[in-house]
Amino acid sequence: MRLAITERITELIETADRPLDALAEEYRIKPESLTSLDLTEPASVTAAVNEILAADKVTLREMLTEICTADPKRPFITFDGKKLTCAEMLNNVKSIVSGMLDIGIKKGDRTAIILDNCLEFIYAYFALFCLGALPVPVNIRWKKNELFNILDDADVSFIICSEKAGTQNYGSFIAEYMKEHEKIKKVFYTDNNLYGESGLEFASLLASGPLDEEQLEEIDPDDIAMISYTSGTTGMPKGVLLKNNNIYKISKYSAEYWCAGHEERPFSIAPLYSAQGFLSLLINVATECDFKMISSFNPNDIVKEISKCENTIIHTQPTMWNLLLSCRIIDFARFDSLNTLVVSGSLCAPTLAKRIEDKLQCELMNAYGLIEGTSVVTMTRLHDPEDVRFNTVGRPIEGVEIKIVDENRVTLPKGETGELAVRGYNMAGYYNNPQKTSEVIDEDGWLYTGDLARYYDEENISIVGRCKDMIIRGGFNVYPSDIEECIMQLPEIQTAAVVGSPHDILGEEIRAFVVVKAGKALTDRDIFRHLFTRIANYKMPDKVHFISEMPIILAGKVDKKELELWAAEGIPENKQVLFLDREDTDEA
User: Could you tell me if 248 and 241 are in contact, meaning their C-beta atoms sit under 8 angstroms apart?
Assistant: First the structure.
């Protein structure tokens, strides 16, 4: 089942000088597919390989079924110490699907999932994919009114939830919502029933009778598989429609880069409600290796799990590593079994990337993506040079094209900074929002990401920041990541973020927010002194604010909208940190 896509492309190129008819006969494809093949165009080669492998025709239902039936006794997943074989996973999913069919869930029905990371969350994803129903994972950081907006916008009919997820009492929120909305047909709860006759214990689905597969509706590769909502950093969260086959191909191709063979043992740490989380889950499945996930995001629990030396690959976001590297327990951790670390979800600064590699003594792979592009767009490769691993997010995965454009969407020469546009496995659109869809996807299928990027070399790109994050101070364009990376070079710094704030004369002034490592102390003069010889004077922060922790949104990203609010209205008292000036200390 493993595609070995890069090997197949190499094989195709090496044999392309043979008679096309013979090559087409061997691979059982149409000769005209090879006649039009342009070996200089990656997208053209990928299209041919997709046809050879019938990859364009695979759905998520077929992906799970084929992987689990190929080797039923093989370990599938270990979740919080509970081990499941391929056969056990598939049988449990089929039982849940049978129960859902009896309840009346059908293809296309929107089903919200409001859970912490747990095995039930994974079962829910796979069961809904198999049904052709649409999972709507809910960000468990959202407040009640945000939850209600999502349930309304997605036209949700079914809900899978627990009484509490994260720090929110979602059970009571949903009970309140149901009193005013008759459209919710059933709530599947994992702990307490707060929903009367409309509630059904999720565990009871596992006891459902055998699945009559003739009841399943046909799923087309281009059918929508799920609705994943954006983080809402630029307004009301938007429902992103992701296609079955796009998710499948992203998962399979990414797995090719992560894993060199079946002996790999991945370990992923990401919230399953996020794009990083559910794609990480599916990429792990696509590796056809025994993989591990846990429910805890506590740094101590994560380090203890890594120290068991059971895994060869770990996948998490840079924000998590800022926390992990600041914990004392990291000095007693063992990383002997790790050979690869994958970071994604937010920008990983070069300084942080080097700190991670130095500590873990394994190779880092840096990935970039966005949910509108089905999560993964570019990735560094194993054994890339150190400067590429630390300073770039790599190059496009198979089937993805990129370009960097100016404000008029005209392609820029390599080396210039502009907006990144991608084409390949893009979303079908925003749910019920054609206007917003047309704003970001043009007639030629290019998705304009809103991210600023530039080519680092001939093929690898670096992400500079968000277009809206760019600060125009006194007529100069300032990219926050340049300043953040420089501040991060101070050994006392845990993390830093830079935003712009309105200014009557300059247009915008630069505000730097800094979290200092536990037990360390700095003043703004220390930071200015460090920056003075390292960055241009127009990039110097006008003010430095010391805070206890960064506000975080989906997938570990820093909430810069919140920082902009703090810059304008003041930092909340419980987030402020004051350090006594060293000169004052000496005088005392």
Answer: no
Q: Specify the DSSP class assigned to residue 270.
A: S
Provide the CA 65 distance to its chain's centre, in angstroms.
24
C-beta of residue 445 within 8 angstroms of C-beta of residue 485 = no
Residues 6+ apart with CB under 8 A from 84: 75, 76, 77, 78, 92
Between CA 205 and CA 120 the distance in angstroms is 11
The three state secondary structure string of 143-201 is CHHHHHHHHHHCCCCEEEECCCECCECHHHHHHHHHHHCCCCCEEEECCCCCCHHHEEE
The per-residue pLDDT for range 224-273, each reduced to its tens digit, is: 999 999 876 555 789 999 999 999 999 988 888 887 666 789 999 889 99
Residue with tokens 């190929």: 70
CB atoms within 10 A of CB 106: 15
Pairwise CA distance, residues 307 & 297, whole Å: 15
As given in the structure block, the two tokens for residue 19 are 């008679």
Residues 414, 450: contact at Cβ < 8 Å? Answer: no
Dist CA 158 CA 6 (whole Å): 41
Question: Helix or strand or coil: residue 115?
Answer: coil
- Torsion over CA: 564, 568, 571, 577 (sign): positive
- Give dist(CA 238, CA 490) in Å, integer: 38
- CA dist 447 and 292 (Å) reads 33
Torsion over CA: 265, 271, 276, 277 (sign): positive
Return the sign of the alpha-carbon dihedral for residues 12, 13, 14, 20: positive
Which pLDDT score, from 0 to 100, does residue 322 have? 79
Q: How far apart are CA 246 and CA 228, in angstroms?
A: 14
Q: Model confidence over 515-526: pLDDT tens digits?
A: 999 888 899 999
Task: Label residue 445 left, alpha or beta by phi (over 0 means left) and psi (-120 to 50 means alpha).
Answer: left
CA angle 9, 261, 367 (to 5 degrees): 70
Strands (E) across 380-435 are located at 395-396, 401-405, 418-423, 429-430
Contacts of 571 (CB under 8 A, 6+ apart): 545, 547
User: Do 85 and 93 touch, CB atoms closer than 8 A?
Assistant: no
Closest of 516, 524, 525 to residue 491, by C-alpha: 516
Q: How far is the C-alpha of 429 from the C-alpha of 373, rounded, in Å?
A: 10
CB distance 314 to 343 below 8 Å: no
CA dist list (Å): 380 to 348, 391, 510, 519: 12, 10, 31, 35
From the list 114, 171, 175, the residue with the least C-alpha distance to 142 is: 114
Could you say which residues of the chain have pLDDT below 70?
Answer: 1-54, 232-235, 260-262, 554-556, 579-588
Instruction: Please give the pLDDT value at position 115.
Output: 97
**Residue-wise burial string across 552-587, b where 16 or more C-beta atoms lie within 10 A, e elsewhere:** ebbbbbbbbbbbbebbeeebeeebeeeeeeeeeeee
216 contact partners, CB below 8 Å, separation of at least 6: 61, 97, 101, 130, 131, 132
Q: What is the pTM of this model?
A: 0.83
Angle at 163 (CA atoms; ends 157, 167), nearest 5 degrees: 110
Which letter does DSSP use for residue 553 in this model? -
| Cα–Cα distance list, 89 to 60, 120, 123, 132, 218 (Å) | 15, 11, 8, 18, 22
